[in-house]
Structure formats: C-alpha cells, structure tokens
Specification:
Elements: H1 2-8, H2 15-31, H3 43-57, E1 64-65, E2 68-69, H4 76-88, H5 92-117, H6 120-131, H7 134-140, H8 145-163, H9 171-189, H10 192-208, H11 219-240, H12 244-258, H13 271-278, H14 283-295, H15 302-321, H16 334-350, H17 359-385, E3 394-395, E4 401-402, H18 410-433, H19 436-466, H20 469-478, E5 484-488, H21 494-498, E6 503-505, H22 512-515, E7 524-525, H23 527-534, E8 540-545, H24 546-552, E9 561-566, E10 569-573, H25 576-580, H26 584-591, H27 596-605
Parallel strand pairs: 5-6, 5-8, 6-7
Antiparallel strand pairs: 1-2, 3-4, 3-9, 8-10, 9-10
Helix pairs in contact: 2-5, 2-6, 3-4, 4-5, 5-6, 5-7, 5-8, 5-16, 6-16, 8-9, 8-10, 9-10, 9-11, 10-15, 14-16, 15-16, 17-18, 18-19
InterPro entries: Arnt_C, LipidA_mod_glycosyltrf_83, RgtA/B/C-like
Main location: membrane
Protein name: Glycosyltransferase family 39 protein
Length: 606
C-alpha cells in the first residue's frame, strides 16, 4: 500500500517516467498475442484486404476490395495497415498493429490531457481507467477503423481544451494540432471527423460564453492546415472516380444516418447497455463521475469538466439518434469518461468523503463479479452437454473431426472465475479498509489480467465462429496452379489469405457499388453461371455455407469434392486431383490444426 501511495500520490513525478511505465505496462495488454488468431469476419478481412491490394497495385488513392472500387471509408486506416504490412509482412499481427497502436496512444493522450487539465495523479488514474476498460482493449485489438478515428478525434478535442486554458504557454501549438488531428479524423472516418470537434467546441463556447476564444484559435491558418491535410485525397479520388462523391457523401453519410439502408438499425437506447458492458469494471463509477461533474460544473475546474461532459454526450446522442448502429461507434466516448472518472477518484482519495462513498456501486459490482465467476465455471460444462450435431465441427483432410469449441473452455472458465473473484475480493477489502486506493488498484490489476489472459481464452471459440482462415488457405492451395476461387456471397478474408481475386456468386453485399463500375460480369455471377463455370476444364474451388451446399450439390456436375468444413462453412472443389495435389506433409500438418501456409503466417505474426 505504501508503494502504491508513493507512486500515485506525488504531484510532480516526471512525465517521461510515467509515459514509459504506461507504455511498458499497457504495451503488453495491447500487443501480447496480437497475431495468434485468424482474421475475424467480416471487418478484419475487409480492412486487411484493401491495403493488401493497395500495395499490390501501387495505388493508394482509390481503395479497392476484391479488385473493385470500395468507397465506404476514407483511406487513413488503409494507409496505416499498408505501412504495417510493409514492416511486418502480410499476417494477422500486422493487420491489427495500427488499431492496437492507436489504442495505446489514446491511453497516453488521456494521461497527458489529464495531467495538463487537473494534475499528475488525475492523468495517471484516467490513463489506468481507460487502459483497463475491457471493451476498449478488446476493440483496439481488432482491425477496425473506429480506433483510428478515436485517437485522432480525441487528440483534436484534447488539444482544444488544453489550448483554451488561459495559462497555457503553447496555445499556438495545441490549436494547430487541433486542426491537424481533425483533418486526420476526417481521413479516418469521414465527415464526423469535422462534425464532432466543431459541434462540441461550438456547444462549449455557447455554454460557457467564451466566444473570445475564437480570436485566438488561429482560424485562418488552422483552416488552411486542415484543408492541406484532408482535401488532397478527396480531390484526387473524385477526379479519378466520378461516382465517388455521391456514394461517399450521400449514401455513406446522409443515408446511413437517416435511414436503415445498411440494415444496422437498433433502438435509441442501444448504446446504454453497450457502454456499461464495454467500460467494465468502471461503468458504475463512470455513471457517478458524470453526475459529480455536472454538479461541479461551476467549480474552479467546472469549464473543463463541462467540456468533457459535452464531448461524451454529443457523440453518444449522435450515434444513438442514428439509424445505423454498431458497437465500435461508441469508442470515442471512452477517453472523456476515463478523464471524468479519473478526476473523481483523485478528488475522493484526498477527501474524507471516501470513507462513505461508493457503497451502492461496490455492492452492485461485487454481486456482478460473483455472478460472472459462477457463469464462467458453469458455461463450458453446460455447453459440453449440448448435443454435438453432425457438421458442428471442423472436418479436415483425412476425415478427422474437431468438435465445435465453446466460447470458453473449462480451464478458461476457471481462470476467468478466479480473476472475477480476485476483483470481488478487492472490492470487499476496499470496503473493509475504507480505502479507495485498494479498490482502484484491485480493479486495475484484475481487469489487466482479464485483458491479457482472459480475452485470449475466448479467442478459440470466436475464431471458430468468425474466421475462415483454414478454408481460405486450403482454397489457395487448391487453386495455386491455376483455376478459380469462388465464394457464395462475399467472404471478406478469402482474397486476403488466397492472395487473389475471388468470383462472387449471388449476393454482392458491400461490393454492390464496385461491381457496377466497369465490366465486372466475369467476377460477379449468379448460380446458373457458376454451374457452367463448375463444369469447365479449369479447377474451381468454392467457399459456401452448408445450407447452400445442400441446396446446390445435386446440380453440381462433376460431383463436388469436400476439401474442408468449418462450422457452417464448406470448401468444395470440382477436381479430386485438387485435393490430392496437397502434399502429404501439408495435409498431415493441417490435420493437427495448421497448414504449412498457416504455420508460415503464424511465424511471421510472432
């Protein structure tokens, strides 16, 4: 306890040392085992394939997916992934590196901002809260554009509120950084990169009546910097692709927000339980921090607290009102909530109030942790008792069957239960000792190990359900000497692992727009066209769902050869020689769980 106080309580501990400690500590949480799992469908395959094709074509202006124009997102995340592939090779670690780095940088940004606004301890506690929010870490380890947006958007907002301090000596630097990061946010996710900073800042100026800040915000020079960074790509891609502007600005912005065209509708309250779950174990304390900050909005730090409240509320309400909702959309709210919660913990550690505080939160959290421990123990055994149906496993060459794994193994359940109970014990001990520092340290430690160890225990089940890596590698081998690789409906990671273009049969999904640019008839076919392709002279391997296979198999001539089955997906081929062409050594390695190519990819990731 004395060591914890000696580290957390000093107000003038050197910032570089804190940053180094945070980098070492959370570097493990963000990067450990990052490349162990195959790419998860659909997002990871998509955001890996676009930069792979950029590198292959040498064109970093027009994003393409399965070799057709793909304009749903701007290019910043693709550029970062392409750079990562150049540094680390085409593997899962490289595909996830940019997102994990963005997550770590956001933790460091929160530390810097908290230290500048409130003090060293507030910044440190806020960084620990963000870095041990399980949902934040989990999503940063997935190849998503949202984490790239989060770090850029957060940096822009943090730079503004730091520069708005009358005592800040480097106002110019922070204001220009605001425009730079806002431009990068636009390149990461589109117009929200401009709308969010502008909307939040205007609300802040109107609420606090600090309109005089407009005179010091370097608007002419900052606007020029913003346009110099954000505009060139939009100009170039529009010049090369006349259909870009309408699709990107109308379809991907207005229609996405106002309609259900993307089939992602959720009720208005959708993000409330999502935020409570993803900010675990700090959710309950975050709710109190919001209420406390609102009550202190007229205090000495009131304007800064109000800005953080506006930051969180604006983004939360914007996406809640949208007709298109996905879990990662809420990520830019996390830094503001972490800063509010860290400030609250720091204040209470100094006050006698800590002796009576957090009674309801501790009781609720202790109960939830106990329930979590019980469920972690029970779930794997209940799952094992469920009937194992034919086809619920992974059939590999040679006929071996690996039954479908549960999301959590019995051993994994014990580990998660122990971590939950350890956090519960910290909650109990903190109440007994009346120490917020014990509570904070216990939750940080338990959540950190839940992130670094517990999350990995879920990956086998998640990978089985959501990754087509093994089947894609088999498809690449089956068509390595020529032939066609097809997919019934577009499988995002198939061209990435195969390293080649895929024929899409039936539904085009996100490729609908690109498939209508130019003559793409040979690559987007209906089932009748696929049947003729199947009967041709070249080898054809196809990835499809079991239901599609059962429906179409009687019409396939010659009879299909099943190369592999994983969950509800199958890989079939029209040539038995294609299956036999797999080297015996490769086949036996795959029966054990990895193909030769899989081994190579894993080696590169490590």
């Amino acid at each position: 306890m004395k060591d914890l106080k000696a580290y957390f309580f000093p107000r003038h501990y050197p910032a570089p040392r804190d940053i180094l400690i945070l980098m070492i500590l959370f570097g493990g949480a963000f990067f450990l085992f990052l490349g162990n799992a195959g790419l998860i469908e659909p997002d990871e395959g998509r955001y890996a394939e676009v930069p792979r094709e950029m590198l292959e074509r040498g064109d970093f202006v027009t994003p393409m997916l399965n070799y057709v124009a793909y304009f749903e997102k701007p290019p910043l995340h693709y550029w970062l992934n392409a750079l990562s592939f150049k540094l680390f090779g085409l593997n899962e670690f490289a595909a996830r590196f940019a997102g994990a780095l963005a997550g770590l940088l956001t933790v460091l940004l929160v530390y810097h901002t908290g230290r500048k606004l409130f003090g060293r301890r507030e910044g440190l506690l806020s960084a620990f809260i963000l870095g041990t929010s399980t949902g934040f870490i989990a999503q940063s380890r997935i190849n998503l554009t949202d984490m790239t947006l989060t770090v850029c958007l957060s940096a822009a907002l943090c730079c503004f509120i730091i520069a708005a301090d009358d005592q800040e000596r480097h106002k110019g630097r922070y204001y220009y950084a605001l425009y730079l990061f806002a431009a990068l946010a636009v390149l990461a996710k589109g117009l929200v990169g401009l709308l969010f900073p502008a909307g939040i800042i205007v609300l802040y100026l109107a609420t606090t009546r600090r309109w005089h800040l407009l005179k010091e915000m370097r608007l002419p020079g900052g606007s020029a910097l913003f346009l110099a960074v954000a505009a060139p790509w939009f100009v170039l891609v529009s010049a090369r692709n006349p259909a870009f502007a309408r699709f990107f600005f109308i379809h991907e912005h207005l229609e996405r927000f106002l309609t259900t065209v993307h089939d992602r509708y959720q009720p208005f309250w959708f993000f409330i339980p999502i935020l409570l779950l993803t900010m675990f174990p700090w959710s309950l304390y975050g709710a109190r921090a919001i209420a406390r900050a609102w009550g202190e909005r007229r205090s000495r730090n009131g304007e800064r607290l109000l800005f953080l409240l506006l930051w969180a509320a604006f983004i939360f309400l914007f996406f809640s009102a949208s007709h298109s909702k996905l879990i990662p959309y809420i990520l830019p709210v996390f830094p503001a909530l972490a800063l509010l919660t860290g400030k609250m913990f720091s204040d209470l550690m100094d006050a006698e109030e800590q002796r009576q505080t957090f009674g309801p939160e501790k009781a609720i959290l202790g109960t939830l942790l106990a329930v979590m421990a019980v469920l972690a123990i029970i779930y794997p055994h209940v799952r094992e008792l469920a009937p194992i149906l034919t086809g619920s496993g992974l059939v590999r060459p040679g006929g071996s069957l690996v039954t479908k794994p549960p999301l959590l193994s019995p051993l994994g359940g014990v580990v998660v239960a122990c971590l939950a109970l350890s956090m519960g014990a910290a909650v109990w001990l903190a109440g007994r000792k009346r120490s917020l520092l014990i509570l904070f340290a216990g939750l940080c430690l338990g959540s950190y190990f839940l992130e670094t160890m517990g999350l990995q225990l879920f990956l086998e089940g998640i990978e089985f359900k959501k990754s087509s890596k093994e089947l894609a590698l088999l498809g690449r081998q089956a068509t390595s000497h020529g032939g066609c690789l097809a997919s019934f409906g577009y499988e995002q990671s198939l061209p990435f692992y195969a390293g080649k273009r895929v024929v899409v049969v039936g539904g085009r999904g996100e490729l609908e727009f690109g498939s209508r640019q130019g003559d793409q008839t040979a690559w987007f076919v209906e089932e009748t066209d696929f049947l003729r392709l199947w009967q041709g002279e070249q080898p054809v391997a196809a990835l499809l769902k079991r239901a599609d296979y059962e429906r179409i198999a009687p019409r396939l001539v010659p009879a299909p050869v099943v190369l592999g089955t994983k969950g509800k997906k199958m890989l079939i081929c029209n040539r038995s020689a294609a299956g036999g062409a797999l080297p015996p050594g490769t086949q036996s390695a795959f029966v054990k769980g990895r193909s030769a190519d899989d081994e190579g990819a894993a080696g590169n990731a490590r």
